[in-house]
Amino acid sequence: QVQLVESGGGLVQAGGSLRLSCAASGSIFSITVMAWYRQAPGKQRELVAVVFRGGSTNYADSVKGRFTISRDNTNDTVYLQMNSLKPEDAAVYYCKADLFDSSRRFGTYWGQGTQVTVSS
């Protein structure tokens, strides 16, 4: 069993910062890709940022220069530092991991989501 647990969401004023964390646990052999997605009410879930095992990253254009994704491979944890938050960043943020479990089976796992609210 693999589980992803997110934390760090909350309410922040526009221009403020938040740091999200997502810890993976369970029967994990290796995590290849970790990513953050978000879904606002009435909108499709969208990719925010992705980090590969080697450390390379990609970002949605809407968050470039404001958000930073990083990962701790030792602790199977991914972070999202969000600065200069805007009201349009408000959404439920989901962590995703693509990984091989201890039986070497490949799968995609999602966290339960954490709410980010940005007041104007």
Question: In words, what does this structure look like?
Answer:
There is one protein chain. With 120 residues, the protein is mainly beta. 0% of the residues lie in helices and 62% in strands. Strands 2, 4, 5, 6, 9, 10 and 11 form a seven-stranded mixed β-sheet that branches. A four-stranded antiparallel β-sheet has the order 1-3-8-7, with no helix packed on it. β7 and β8 form a beta hairpin. The termini are far apart. The model has no long low-confidence stretch (mean pLDDT 97).
- The topology string of helices and strands comes to EEEEEEEEEEE
Structural class: mainly beta
| Largest beta-sheet details | 7 strands, mixed
Low-confidence stretches: none
Radius of gyration: 14 Å
Q: Report the oligomer.
A: single chain
How would you describe the shape?
elongated
The helix tally amounts to 0
Q: Which features does this protein show?
A:
seven-stranded mixed sheet, mainly beta, 120 residues, four-stranded antiparallel sheet
How would you summarize this macromolecular structure in one to three sentences?
The chain is an all-beta fold. The protein is built from no helices and eleven strands.
Give the topology.
Layout: E1 2-7, E2 10-13, E3 18-26, E4 28-39, E5 46-52, E6 57-59, E7 67-72, E8 77-82, E9 91-101, E10 106-110, E11 114-119
Parallel strand pairs: 2-11
Antiparallel strand pairs: 1-3, 3-8, 4-5, 4-9, 5-6, 7-8, 9-10, 9-11
